[in-house]
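Hi V.,

Quick status before I head out on leave. The structure for the redesign project is tokenized and pasted below; the design run finished overnight.
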């Protein structure tokens, strides 16, 4: 045996070399490791009093046989015990030179042995003062004289001063990090940081909790990093993810800031190997870019970890052969690498084999464009085409129900091909869109599930999922819909990272700097694309305002506006342009596009457009922003302004899927319970557990969007980096120039919006017959859209539609008035309103409901919550209100106590920092009301701001009167109808209906 003497201790040379090969300093090895052989290892490992022994104290024969391999020697390691006055820890690990087989996995060997019958601990290795100083310098936390004199030394200093700690699996990894200048704690396994109480039958009987060693260091505000090995095996990846999540959440509950350090995929497995291969500075870069646990959890919903069957790294996909027997084909490739072209080949192959193809999209324009590329009819073309649906057809996912134009029946499809392009966006549209699909969502979800099962269970059926952003979430969703039909996804990944060019990022709270840069660029000529996230006339930075602004500034500029209105307006130059962009766009100098140009179209014009500009106000998902910027395939400079934080939230805005889904479950239970109690009816027939797999997918996507909205700009920029862009800071502009830009945009915006409101108020309200025809039309002129809007507003408010009313409606006035109405005059009709909507949803879903839609439509919990807060007591005109009033202090106390409930049902964030007046203002804002500041009262040292309620003079009383009349009339009609139904006998039913038909009153509609 080759040995080496280190400071009087004898070690096997191979043991030292093993540690040195892991990037560990020799001094740390010598302080913590021992080379053992013969019977000595028994003394270190077999010490538990719980081990069964013979009467003479000797080990049982079975244990002697099990541990006989220890006598061939190995190395032992233990550290100090922070829970025992920092003395040497008895517990540790032993790595035998000749390991024994794992009895549970006979093909594997047990690399490490730990004391049997003893609970596992954590490793706190000893280090030298030089390493201590290195760690101190790294984290900028000084070492005091008292720290040096304390018996606990380094680890007491770490505990006392909240030094950041990195948790790893395996003692050598901790030693490597300590050598590199990081405080590190080692666990013997990824699940060893916490324990889950179990009974004698291994059934969980309690909640997980941190092991005492970690809990001791889990002090408030400490940064705790988790850095476990990276692996390629899906089951191992999932096990590690679960362990990180559980331990991380427990550390967060103690007040720690938890971050996750991920090693690059495909490289070294452990952090020690990474440091040896890449160097300490490379790890330092990983350390500095570690993600907080919440964001790391979110990222898991956006990545694809299924091992690829075909991995490419090329500019274009080219010809890829998929084995005939594959059922679920997943294609992940960067934008512009030929996904659509490859799918066109797969469609042609399916047609050659006599199979139909169903192309499912989330936008009509996208579906039409794909069908044009694939040589398949879109659903609207079937009846006017010679081929009809012989080759299949394209359809928007909204239409996957029997009452649509497609008259869709999933049982018509089995040995066919289903293509879901931009699948991530299709699924999100399916699960959350507020378009027509919301009325039939349960039916569509049922049909999609049946479609997936029919196709995957058939002999030749195939499903293709394609997107640059396809993830485990999308694949698992299809697999979960498949139910008992088990298939292995055939994954194709193109790892090509394009050089997408430069992307200039403009700072500021608004895009004035970008517009100033656009002015200079347009004045020099060239051709440009401007992507906007908004199109409404009200939006200051939307397509309509900017079109008019640039038209005024550059009268000779040829401008084309592409948005959902212009492409559907037969009188507009952009009408129907989506399928012919490459032919049309070269006729213009500036193309201003809304998200209508987001996916499914490819601008392949070369050498024409010089720059792509983008103004993104935080109203669309971050991947949609990247999709818009990528429509021009040619590498050209991108210039973008992105709002720092996004608008809106999904559900209660949470980024933890558990909390998000729990809020939906509890809200549904509360809504049904309240309805049952108030309506005195049985709602137990409603299926509250409809498609949990779909709700789980909704929750994952919602968490991603909620997280992105909180750091919208950073999320967009990070995504663009991944797309191959080089992010550069744009040049600043003079403050005066910026002010001029802003004033010009404000003036144009006001002009455009005022004109839009006045024009809409001036058009004639169509008759019911005319309105029905307009609503059924897909292509509408500007006047027809205005007529439809005016008719909807007239029905909604019941008063004359003026320009002022239109502005208020655009500002969200209707839900505010509705809330006040049902809190006051309309309170008696609230139950009937909610019950009507609940029954309608259950009927449309054959007894099932989609929880997010159901909860959003129910008002009773929100109304009762505001009643419980007694906010209406402060709406007495003339009464002076100040923050010290006992009633307002009581309001704050109960609001803070129930802040999570308030956030769930009212969408309002309440915190202890808010004053009672500020909380009252937030709650009154739900009704479009507020308290008015009238002055200050009190002595000079104790002066308080004083407020009072002033009734608004905005016609809301007239609207409430109209709504009340409408509800009372509807209620009377309902009672009369119910009474008449008792008069109809089976023998005279036909006669009675005839008698009543002449006298039946007009049915008033209740408030929507």
């Amino acid at each position: 045996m080759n040995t080496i003497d280190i400071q009087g201790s004898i070690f096997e040379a191979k043991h030292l070399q093993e540690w040195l090969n892991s990037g560990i300093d020799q001094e740390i090895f010598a302080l913590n490791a021992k080379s053992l052989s013969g019977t000595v290892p028994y003394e270190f490992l077999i010490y538990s009093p719980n081990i069964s022994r013979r009467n003479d104290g000797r080990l049982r024969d079975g244990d002697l046989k099990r541990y006989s391999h220890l006598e061939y020697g190995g190395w032992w390691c233990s550290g100090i015990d922070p829970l025992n006055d920092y003395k040497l820890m008895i517990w540790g690990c032993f790595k035998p030179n000749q390991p024994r087989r794992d009895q549970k996995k006979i093909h594997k060997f047990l690399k490490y042995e730990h004391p049997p019958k003893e609970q596992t601990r954590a490793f706190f290795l000893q280090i030298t003062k030089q390493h201590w100083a290195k760690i101190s310098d790294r984290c900028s936390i000084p070492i005091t004289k008292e720290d040096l004199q304390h018996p606990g030394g380094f680890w007491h200093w770490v505990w006392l001063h909240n030094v950041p700690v990195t948790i790893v699996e395996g003692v050598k990894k901790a030693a490597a990090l300590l050598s590199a200048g990081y405080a590190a704690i080692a666990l013997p396994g990824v699940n060893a940081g916490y324990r889950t109480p179990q009974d004698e039958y291994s059934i969980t009987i309690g909640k997980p909790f941190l092991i005492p060693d970690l809990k001791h260091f889990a002090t408030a505000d400490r940064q705790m990093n988790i850095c476990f090995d990276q692996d390629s095996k899906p089951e191992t990846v999932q096990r590690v993810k679960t362990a990180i999540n559980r331990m991380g959440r427990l550390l967060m509950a103690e007040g720690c800031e938890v971050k996750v350090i991920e090693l690059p995929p495909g490289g070294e497995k452990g952090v020690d190997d990474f440091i040896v291969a890449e160097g300490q500075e490379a790890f330092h870069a990983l350390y500095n870019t570690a993600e907080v646990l919440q964001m790391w959890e979110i990222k898991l919903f956006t990545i694809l970890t299924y091992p690829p069957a075909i991995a490419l790294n090329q500019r274009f996909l080219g010809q890829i052969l998929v084995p005939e027997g594959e059922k679920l084909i997943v294609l992940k490739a960067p934008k512009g690498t030929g996904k659509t072209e490859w799918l066109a080949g797969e469609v042609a192959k399916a047609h050659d084999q006599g199979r139909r193809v169903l192309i499912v999209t989330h936008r009509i324009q996208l579906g039409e464009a794909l069908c044009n590329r694939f040589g398949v009819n879109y659903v609207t073309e079937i009846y006017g085409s010679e081929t009809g649906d012989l080759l299949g057809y394209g359809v928007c996912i909204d239409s996957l129900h029997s009452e649509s134009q497609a008259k869709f029946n999933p049982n018509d499809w089995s040995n066919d091909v289903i293509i879901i392009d931009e699948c991530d966006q299709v699924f999100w549209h399916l699960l959350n869109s507020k378009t027509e699909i919301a009325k039939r969502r349960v039916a569509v979800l049922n049909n999609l599930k049946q479609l997936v099962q029919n196709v995957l269970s058939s002999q030749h059926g195939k499903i293709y999922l394609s997107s640059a952003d396809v993830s485990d979430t999308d694949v698992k969703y299809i697999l979960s819909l498949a139910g008992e039909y088990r298939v292995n996804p055939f994954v194709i990944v193109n790892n090509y990272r394009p050089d997408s060019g430069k992307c200039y990022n403009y700072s500021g709270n608004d895009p004035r700097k970008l517009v100033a840069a656009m002015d200079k660029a347009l004045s020099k000529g060239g051709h440009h694309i401007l992507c906007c996230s908004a199109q409404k006339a009200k939006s200051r930075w939307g397509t309509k305002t900017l079109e008019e602004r640039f038209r005024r500034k550059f009268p000779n500029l040829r401008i084309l506006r592409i948005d959902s209105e212009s492409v559907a307006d037969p009188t507009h130059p952009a009408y129907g342009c989506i399928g012919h962009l490459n032919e049309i766009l070269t006729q213009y100098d500036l193309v201003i596009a809304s998200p209508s140009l987001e996916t499914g179209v490819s601008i392949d014009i070369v050498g024409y457009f010089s720059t792509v500009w983008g103004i993104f106000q935080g109203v669309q998902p971050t991947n949609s922003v990247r999709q818009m910027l990528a429509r021009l395939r040619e590498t050209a400079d991108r210039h973008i302004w992105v709002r720092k934080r996004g608008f809106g939230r999904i559900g209660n805005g949470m980024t933890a899927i558990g909390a998000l889904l729990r809020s939906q479950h509890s809200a549904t239970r509360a809504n049904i319970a309240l309805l049952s109690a108030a309506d005195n009816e049985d709602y137990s027939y409603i299926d509250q557990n409809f498609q949990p797999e779909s709700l789980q997918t909704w929750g994952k996507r919602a968490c991603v969007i909620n997280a992105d909205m909180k750091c919208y700009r950073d999320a967009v920029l990070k995504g663009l980096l991944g797309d191959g862009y080089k992010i550069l800071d744009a040049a600043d502009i003079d403050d005066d120039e910026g002010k001029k830009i802003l004033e010009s945009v404000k003036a144009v915006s006001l002009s455009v919006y005022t004109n839009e409101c006045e024009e809409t108020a001036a058009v004639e309200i169509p008759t019911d017959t005319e309105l029905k025809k307009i609503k059924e039309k897909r292509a509408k002129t500007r006047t027809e859209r205005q007529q439809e809007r005016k008719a909807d507003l007239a029905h909604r408010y019941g008063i004359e539609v003026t320009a002022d009313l239109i502005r208020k409606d655009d500002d969200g006035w209707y839900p505010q008035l509705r809330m006040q109405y049902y809190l006051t005059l309309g309170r008696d009709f609230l139950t009937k309103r909610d019950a009507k909507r609940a029954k309608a949803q259950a009927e449309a879903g054959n007894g099932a409901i989609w929880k997010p839609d159901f909860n959003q439509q129910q008002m009773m919990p929100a109304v009762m919550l505001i009643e419980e807060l007694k906010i209406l007591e402060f709406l007495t005109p003339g009464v002076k209100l100040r923050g010290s009033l006992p009633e307002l202090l009581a309001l704050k106390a109960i609001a803070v106590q129930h802040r999570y409930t308030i956030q769930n049902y009212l969408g309002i964030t309440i915190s202890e920092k808010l004053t009672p007046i500020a909380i009252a203002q937030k709650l009154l804002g739900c009704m479009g009301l507020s308290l008015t500041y009238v002055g200050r009262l009190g002595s000079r040292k104790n002066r308080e701001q004083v407020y009072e309620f002033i009734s608004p003079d905005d016609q809301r009383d007239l609207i409430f009167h109209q709504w009340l009349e409408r509800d009372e009339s509807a209620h009377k009609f309902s009672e009369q109808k119910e009474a008449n139904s008792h008069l109809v006998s089976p023998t005279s039913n036909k006669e009675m209906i005839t008698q009543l038909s002449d006298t039946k009153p007009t049915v008033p509609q209740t408030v929507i």
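Above is the designed sequence. Residues 113 and 753 are 74 Å apart (CA to CA).

G. will cover questions while I'm gone.

Best,
W.
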